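Q: My hope is that you can spare some time for a protein that puzzles me. Underneath my words sits a plain record pairing an amino acid chain with its backbone structure tokens. Those tokens are not coordinates but codes from a learned vocabulary of shapes. Thank you; the sequence and its tokens follow:
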Amino acid sequence: MPQKKGFFAKSPDGGRFSESAPPSWTRLPRAFAMALGLYTVLPGFARWDDALPGLLMPCLPVVGVLLGALWLGVASLAGALLPAALAAVVIALAMPLVTGFLHLDGLMDVSDAVLSARSLEDKRRILKDPHTGSFAVIALFCLLAAQIAAAHGALEAGRLKGLLFLPVVSRALAALALQSLPPMEGSHYGQMAHEAATPGRRLCCLIALGIALVAAFYLDWRGGAACAFAIAGFALACLAAARSLSGMNGDIAGCGICCAELAGLIALACL
């Protein structure tokens, strides 16, 4: 008899893929706690459950809601207590710190691989190489310098409200990309997200993206425009990297998140 199709799951400790029955939507709180512990340094207070990784993608924009609230709170507090230049540094480093530099690592890995201009096989080998190359260092420096400058501009202009929505937008896009684009060969994370994708789960991410856009435009058109710039930044970075590496994986998603938030910050500073 053919096996029933389940949700491919892989534990963080490198466990093998297993199949299980689709989890109940009543288990979303536990899936959110798992996502919180996986994608941030915040305690999720939930043990890993091999039956739930398929629900991590719909939970990713919800994690973005919490991160956006933290980012706006930290930015407002830093702007009130610190000189503008120091406050800009705090704003630029807030997201990398609270996510444990997870997405910056993806940006650096992807930069090393894509900018190497090697063959596809060599690019994928470089992507998995734990050593840090020159392109990764250059990309990190450029990103942080641009983020600090953009944060300073947004702070001086008093346009910090958009920070509330940028993490939601960037993570909704990352979840959609991981569920929709073909996974990179050998990427367990990309395979898990793609195989577990359903129309309902993609719809949840689209709804979260739409709500963030509408709310941002409602509060301030500049915040909504910043979200639109974030979408463009994510699309350019993610699609270019996925095309260069012939597939989607978690590193590319992290790179897209970094580029989306940078584009949004620049928009807040300039508009």
In short: Residues 1-23 have pLDDT under 50 and may be disordered. The radius of gyration is 18 Å.
